[in-house]
Amino acid sequence: MNKQKVLVAGASGYLGRYVVKEFVERGYAVRALVRNPEKLATDGPNLEPAVSSLVDEMVRGDATDRASLKEVCKGVDIVFSCMGLTKPQDGVTSEEIDHLGNRALLEDALAHDVKKFIYISVFNAEKMMDVDIVKAHELFVHDLQSSAMPSTVIRPTGFFSDMGMFLASARSGHMFMLGDGKNHVNPIHGADLAKVCVDAVESSEKEICAGGPGTYTFNETVDMAFEAVGKNTWITHIPMWVGDAALFVTGFLNKPLASILAFAVSVSGLDNVAPATGTHHLGDFYRELAAKEETKQ
Ligand SMILES: NC(=O)c1ccc[n+]([C@@H]2O[C@H](COP(=O)([O-])OP(=O)(O)OC[C@H]3O[C@@H](n4cnc5c(N)ncnc54)[C@H](OP(=O)(O)O)[C@@H]3O)[C@@H](O)[C@H]2O)c1
Asked: Hey, which of 87, 177, 202, 272 has its CA 20 to 30 A from 221?
């Protein structure tokens, strides 16, 4: 029997690599859509695996060049997309990537009779619609759900990769944190979220919210990072209004950076606890990442 083929857009990113691995382990053939195929040959910065040896095919495509996304869905049964703007790119907006790039993929998927489109948006989106990235995600969710394409939208909390940066601060011995750090979050490991993503192929749910098995205050997530590097926690809390003011100024000086920071500022001001799944714990992730970084030094 022929394997089902899945196009993974965003395959070189933190989540994308785990999703490639999970699809392959469950017997799917994977076509990876990437800007730079070489990236798949090495591990990522937050322990995410190299996957170039797992994929059946690689195709190059860039969301800012929508012609490059034409025909990428030819012969594909399922499209999974976590293609998104998470770091500032010169002159590029989340509207261009998260919304219009994914819309171009959807148009190609419709033209090639793809059976299902699975998309990663964000948890608590309705509370953050003033944030460019969230708005762009949700504009695409609207396009997807109003099209004829069967779909599931996954809404995860923060990824462990996002918490990885706390480790760098902990190593320096000090960290600034927006707000009082008392809001709660249940961050999720890429491997745990990948299982939810692949399960979504057979799911009839239109939307699935997912977080990891451990719920912590933001302060506790930072405590664990300090513990992993063997240092005492030292956090300076910054009032939320300072973050808002800094964002306002950054908006004039560096719009792409402000757009990414706005997401972090909004998330810091909310509880982000989604239905729990998975087996990976944040403390173990920090310890593993800290040990890997030590061997590099
Ligand atoms: N991180 C979180 O805590 C979190 C939480 C909820 C939802 N999400 C959403 O989940 C998705 C994946 O997040 P992640 O942390 O795995 O992000 P990531 O590691 O930055 O991966 C993003 C992927 O999108 C690709 N991409 C970016 N710009 C592109 C472009 N112009 N054309 C084609 N591909 C492009 C990247 O390719 P390159 O490798 O070439 O850059 C990469 O493969 C994002 O949409 C994000 O908003 C993230």
From this structure: 87
Q: What are phi and psi of 249, to 5 degrees?
A: -70, -45
Substitution candidate for ligand 1 out of 72, 86, 90, 127 with most atoms within 8 A of CB: 86
* Domain-located, residue 268: no
**CA nearest ligand 1 atom 31, residue:** 63
Asked whether 50 and 40 are in contact (CB, 8 A), the reply is yes
| Domain containing residue 199 | 5-157+189-210
Give the predicted TM-score (pTM) of the model.
Answer: 0.95
Residue 266 burial class via C-beta count within 10 angstroms: exposed 0-12, middle 13-18, buried 19 and up: buried
Q: Per the domain annotation, does 225 fall within a domain?
A: no
CATH number of the domain at 63, please. 3.40.50.720
